[in-house]
Amino acid sequence: MQALYRKYRPKTFDDVVGQEMTITALKNQIKENRVHHAYIFSGTRGTGKTSVAKIFARAVNCLSPVGANPCNECKVCRGILEESLFDVMEIDAASNNSVDDIREIREHVAYAPAVAKKKVYIIDEVHMLSKGAFNALLKILEEPPAHALFILATTEPEKIPATILSRAQRFTFFRLKEEAIQGELARILDLEKRSYTDEGLAVIAAHSDGSMRDSLSILDQVLSMDDGVVDGELVRDALGLTEEEGIFRIVDGLFTGDGALIVDALNRAYDRGKNFSLLLDALIDYFRDLLFYGYTREVPKGLSESEGAAFEAHAKNLDEGYGFQVLQLFQQGREQFRYAKDPKTVVEILLLKALHLKDAGSLPGDEIVSLDAAPRKKVPVKKAEEPRKETAAVASSPEEKTKDDETIPEASEGQQTLSEARDRDIIEGDKTALAEDRWQEVQSAVREKSVACAALLKDVQSTKMEGNRLTILFQPKFSFHLQMLKKEANVKALAEGVKEALGPETTVAVEAIGDADDDVLQSIERVFKDVTIEKE
Q: How many C-beta atoms lie closer than 10 Å to residue 303's C-beta?
């Protein structure tokens, strides 16, 4: 069976994807009979350089051209397509790079073509010619016969001598946009009568590095694995990628300091034979996208609706300083793969270091944001004019009393942090609130159903348990979370998780807290009710 990239190689200029400017210029030269004697096609692999060179060779020699396109039916076109016409020669400079190889061309180029209008020499990877070979080629290009046409294809034009560059017209072939690749893949799958999803094509396009040939090679591999639908899961399995859910679980573990969640995600990736080098690349890309989201507000392409919701939840709760530190750590760790015997160990150590960065609080300013708690703030507090002994209730022991001539220290010095005070207020001040350990059970159960839904629960302000009804409360600023939790998939995952954790009779509702003021600050004010608290 013929490979897809050969089976669907473009036959006319109109079939070429993503190189509109180059194609337009070449077609105009053919129409106006202004074909040059030498061309340089430069660009990354798989962007169509050799394919366009062959189309161009047929177009300038075609006996019955269709506009500027070759007919592909006349004897000249058929001869070039079947590689049986000696007037058109394709030479691989990687293996024919000596001066003798180019001298042989110089000897034959002087003779007129036997059948075609022009003798065409397509030299692929021309940058690999030796110095002597380049000098020999230069002699040909200085005084070429009228019937000669040279097309030099290269991925490294900077290695071609300036004397060669100055004697040829240069066209650059750019990397293809992902949208163009997806469109061509969809066309080919329609012709192959195979079902596909947009997500599956997006994953292929994202990993093809702008190369149409690479994307078709990936598609070929995917089609050989399964005769079902070409979707995101199938493509990731074919490429040995870690599924997006695994990335979300790892990032959840980093943000919450949950090492067990990270280990579980890594073990799943290992059991499924995932490539840990690609896993680290995916984490680097994910943190890069999280940091860019703060400026662009754009969710990366290729994510499903629920995955996009989880991504936005991560982005909105990421401390930028921590994000840059983790990104730098992963980038440096990427270099260790060339020396490591076990890539899994490298990734595990890097993630341990990332957890340590969070726990150590090494960042300047505020502490690292965690998804399961509001960002901690330092609130300056004053002692009341007549301090009371009740303020000692927040000290670490009953003996630690606040003296009359002392100000109350910041929360980090012998007092609860703001988030701890908030949690204490929820559990002890409101007897209807769900206990913290039970709430953790709910989150774990929901996470098993949907990682995206569980990510939305990280920003819950408080809970209420009244009979068999659990009410989950968000601050008004989290309206996006409320909207996403009303989606059918998230409603189902949340309901099933709550029933599993709290009992089959339990129902759940999600609501916004009526007051948009800082609930954390209100909680502190209730705990330190006899102390004046100033807002900055």
A: 19
Report the share of the chain in percent with pLDDT over 70: 80
Euclidean distance between CA atoms 78 and 58, whole angstroms: 9
The pair of three-digit structure tokens given for residue 509, joined into one six-digit string = 């509702």
Could you read off the pLDDT of 355-402 as tens digits, one per residue? 888 765 544 333 333 333 333 333 343 333 444 434 333 333 444 444
Task: Give 8's contacts (C-beta < 8 A, 6+ positions apart).
Answer: 188, 191, 216
As a dihedral over the C-alpha atoms of residue 239, residue 207, residue 222, residue 201, rounded to 10 degrees, the angle is 140
Whether the pLDDT of residue 435 is over 60: the answer is yes
pLDDT reported for residue 366: 36
Q: Which residues of 394-428 are buried (b: 16+ CB within 10 A; e: fewer)?
A: beeeeeeebeeeeebeebeeebbbbbbbbbbbbbe
Tell me the residue type at 144: P
In this predicted structure, which of 36-40, 146-150, 390-394 has the lowest mean pLDDT? 390-394
Concatenated DSSP letters of 145-194: -TTEEEEEEES-GGGS-HHHHTTSEEEEEPPPPHHHHHHHHHHHHHHTT-
- Please report, to the nearest 10 degrees, the dihedral formed by the alpha carbons of residues 56, 57, 61, 65 taken in order: -30
Maximum pairwise Cα distance, the chain: 110
- Asked whether the predicted pLDDT for residue 258 surpasses 90, the reply is no
194 vs 414: which has the higher pLDDT: 194
Mean pLDDT of the chain: 79
Q: Which pLDDT does position 362 carry in this prediction?
A: 45
Considering the entire predicted model, what is its pTM? 0.58
Structure tokens at 5: 């990239």
Q: Starting at the earlier edge strand, list the strands of the sheet with 119-124.
A: 88-92, 119-124, 148-154, 38-43, 169-173
> Distances from the Cα of 270 to the Cαs of 235, 276, 333, 415, 493, in angstroms?
18, 8, 19, 43, 27
Q: Cα Rg for the chain, rounded, in angstroms?
A: 33
Cα three-residue angle 265-270-274, rounded to 5 degrees: 100
- Cα of first residue to Cα of last residue in the chain, in angstroms, is 72
> What domains can be seen in the chain, in order of their start residue?
4-173 (3.40.50.300), 178-239 (1.10.8.60), 246-360 (1.20.272.10), 379-394+416-536 (no CATH)
Q: Which residue has the higher pLDDT, 536 or 81?
A: 81
